[in-house]
Design goal:
The protein has 440 residues and is an alpha+beta fold. Helix content is 48%, strand content 20%. It folds into four domains: 4-63 and 410-422, Alpha-Beta Plaits; 68-137, Alpha-Beta Plaits, CATH 3.30.70; 144-290, no CATH class; 300-391, Calcium-transporting ATPase, cytoplasmic transduction domain A (Distorted Sandwich). One of its GO terms (molecular function) is metal ion binding.
Length: 440
């Protein structure tokens, strides 16, 4: 998306889908937040609605996977183990749904975090396999990041290929014409008044116009099909005007011994090249808008020290685990200089915790038994034993991320008014140019 007209087009297409109550599209982050009734609409239908407008779409989240985890199974995964693992997981309290993909060796579990958690799932899977199975959190690159990376590479390749053809077009029309020897060669007639330079520019410009620039034709056709006009329409109109006028000039020069004129092939190819460069830089800039959120999520430590208490209230064992495996009511040990792995409250010890990442106050806050701590904050001195109360999507960091994403989706009244005006910008521009052409 390049302008507010694009966001209006996508919003209108989404709101036209039966079952959609509300749709908000953010231009800066290129994300859409949709409130819909799953009985009448599905995620695939929403993706198709966006793609019909000329844009690509990938699913980030359905809102139903807040408490869903994917586990990878290693080892000898026999077919008989599939039903055993599924039945064993279903026997756990708080498990809502289980999906097993034997090809990818992936187990997806939806659960209630106040009753169970991922560590229980791993223990059940490994015990079911009698030592033949090992389970861990499934490492899967986010679809959004992959799509963004592919889009950046695609625009970069398109821009480089456009330069391969555009630079010779520019040189033959703007530079070589002032070099006597080369100028004489380029102005040599091929057929009637058609010169070698014009023929070369036509050959070099055509791939840029119809192969490299085909994305603008596709986008403009889909936009016009939905009764809207976006920037792709303007690009297609401008480049087509320059290209087909130049082609008309070539045909007249080739069929007439006295016709004189000028071609504008360099305008078409250079315009497409500069637009591709602008889109490439725009995508790079938009990618930085989500860096703050990514850095915020990285504040949480990768590992945590899990404590086991005995009947007398003493620590009987401790082990290091992945911080994503922390469950409610787990007791975590936080050493001096370490990060608090989860939201919770102190049950033993006293220390000072740096909470500047939340409050902005650099002065450490004293913590003792009964005080609340926030995941991602830094323990300054002393050892703390913390009982986890909010994990996963319920943690303070996750809530902050969702608030930031919601704020990016929200629009001020002035912005909504500007969006309504921009809806008519492209049609008005086309109408004015048409009127000017008729007047001339």
């Amino acid at each position: 998306m390049t302008c507010t007209s694009c966001t209006n087009t996508v919003e209108s297409a989404l709101q036209a889908v039966p079952g959609v109550h509300k749709a908000l599209v953010a231009l800066a982050t290129e994300e859409a937040e949709i409130c819909y009734d799953p009985r009448f609409a599905s995620a695939n239908q929403l993706i198709e609605a966006v793609e019909d407008t000329g844009f690509e779409a990938t699913l980030i989240t359905t809102g139903e996977d807040r408490n869903r985890i994917q586990l990878k199974i290693d080892g000898t995964f026999y077919s008989r183990y599939i039903s055993m693992v599924k039945s064993s997981l279903q026997a756990l309290p708080g498990v809502d749904d289980i999906n097993i993909d034997p090809v990818l060796r992936k187990v997806t579990v939806s659960y209630k975090p106040d009753q169970t958690g991922p560590r229980n799932f791993i223990e059940v899977i490994e015990s079911t396999g009698s030592g033949h199975l090992k389970a861990s959190i499934y490492q899967e690159a986010g679809g959004k990041e992959l799509h963004k990376s592919d889009e950046i590479k695609q625009y970069y390749r398109s821009f480089l290929w456009s330069l391969v053809f555009t630079i010779p077009v520019f040189l033959t029309s703007m530079v070589f014409m002032y070099i006597p020897g080369i100028k004489h060669l380029l102005e040599k007639k091929v057929v009637n008044m058609l010169t070698i330079g014009e023929l070369l520019r036509w050959i070099l410009c055509t791939p840029v116009q119809f192969v490299i620039g085909r994305r603008f034709y596709i986008g403009s056709c889909k936009a016009l099909r939905h009764g809207s006009a976006n920037m792709d329409v303007l690009i297609a109109l401008g480049t087509n005007a320059a290209y087909f006028y130049s082609l008309y000039y070539m045909l007249r020069a080739a069929t007439s011994p006295n016709f004189m004129g000028t071609d504008f092939f360099e305008t078409s190819s250079m315009l497409i090249s500069f637009i591709l460069l602008g889109k490439y830089l725009e995508i790079l800039a938009k990618g930085k808008t989500s860096e703050a959120i990514a850095k915020l999520m990285n504040l949480a430590p990768e590992t945590a020290i899990l404590l086991s208490y005995g009947n007398e209230g003493n620590v009987v064992s401790e082990r290091e685990i992945d911080s994503r495996l922390i469950q409610k009511n787990d007791i975590i040990r936080v050493v001096p200089g370490g990060k608090v792995a989860s939201d919770g409250f102190v049950i033993w010890g006293q220390s000072h915790v740096n909470e500047s990442m939340i409050t902005g106050e650099s002065r450490p806050v004293a913590k003792r038994k009964g005080d609340a701590v926030i995941g991602g904050t830094v323990n300054e001195n002393g050892v703390l034993h913390v009982r986890a109360t909010h994990v996963g999507s319920e943690s303070a960091l996750s809530l902050i991320v969702r608030l930031v994403e919601s704020a990016q989706m929200a629009k001020a009244p002035v912005q909504k008014f500007a969006d309504r005006i921009s809806k008519y910008f492209v049609p008005l521009l086309i109408t004015l140019n048409r009127f000017k052409y008729l007047m001339v």
